[in-house]
Design a protein that fits this description.
Helices cover 65% and strands 4% of the residues. It is built from seven helices and two strands; from the N terminus they run H-H-H-H-E-H-E-H-H. The mean pLDDT is 86.
Length: 199
């Protein structure tokens, strides 16, 4: 093992571990306001100690033609690199909602299949403080949805990141089809329909 290779391997291990840590702390780069007080330093130290221990243990079994010092100079960085890749993959799966029914890729597939829909979450209840006819409002919303080329699907109370990502992909698509500001136009159309059917 050359010294140059060892330096490259160690740097790769260090950079990949730091990258995995940053992606974890920033929720895959979306939350850049890191609260440094809430970072669990002890947890990070425990992970580092476990990775070093696993590297030392693997050094007993792998690269048997080398002396033990050279073995652990390989196995410890390899443990850090493998951990970083697994952690980045786990963070990406959670961020994109790949373990959920609705996610980035299902949105892209639905667009290709012409199934344009926006997912709504939460319980939809009429506001008792307004004089709006709830049934007429829902009918007006359905008409405008058809006009702008999508359908709303209510999924109940469950809110997941996959649903958020799914909707953002659909919103981007609808913005391309209907131009920017289409939501404002849609609200205006709903208001005019409601005014025209008001008693």
């Amino acid at each position: 093992m050359t010294k140059r290779f060892q330096i490259i391997l160690t740097l790769t291990a260090f950079i990949s571990f730091i990258l995995a840590l940053v992606l974890d702390l920033t929720y895959f780069g979306q939350d850049t306001d890191i609260d440094w007080k809430n970072i669990e330093v002890l947890k990070i130290l425990i992970v580092v100690i476990i990775l070093i221990a696993v590297g030392l243990l693997l050094g007993l079994y792998f690269f048997s033609k080398k002396n033990y010092k050279n073995r652990i100079l390989l196995t410890i960085p390899i443990c850090f690199i493998l951990f970083a890749f697994v952690d980045i993959a786990k963070t990406a799966i959670n961020y994109y909602g790949l373990n959920e029914e609705y996610n980035y890729f299902t949105a892209k597939q639905d667009i290709r299949n012409g199934k344009i829909q926006l997912l709504e979450t939460g319980i939809i209840l009429p506001n008792p403080n307004t004089n709006v006819d709830w049934k007429k409002k829902q009918d007006a919303e359905k008409k405008t949805e058809k006009q702008f080329g999508y359908k709303s699907i209510n999924l109940g109370c469950t809110v997941t990141n996959g649903i958020y990502i799914y909707n953002s992909v659909m919103e981007d698509y609808l913005e391309k089809v209907n131009d920017k500001g289409w939501r404002t136009k849609e609200r205006a159309i709903i208001d005019s329909i409601m005014k025209s059917i008001a008693p």
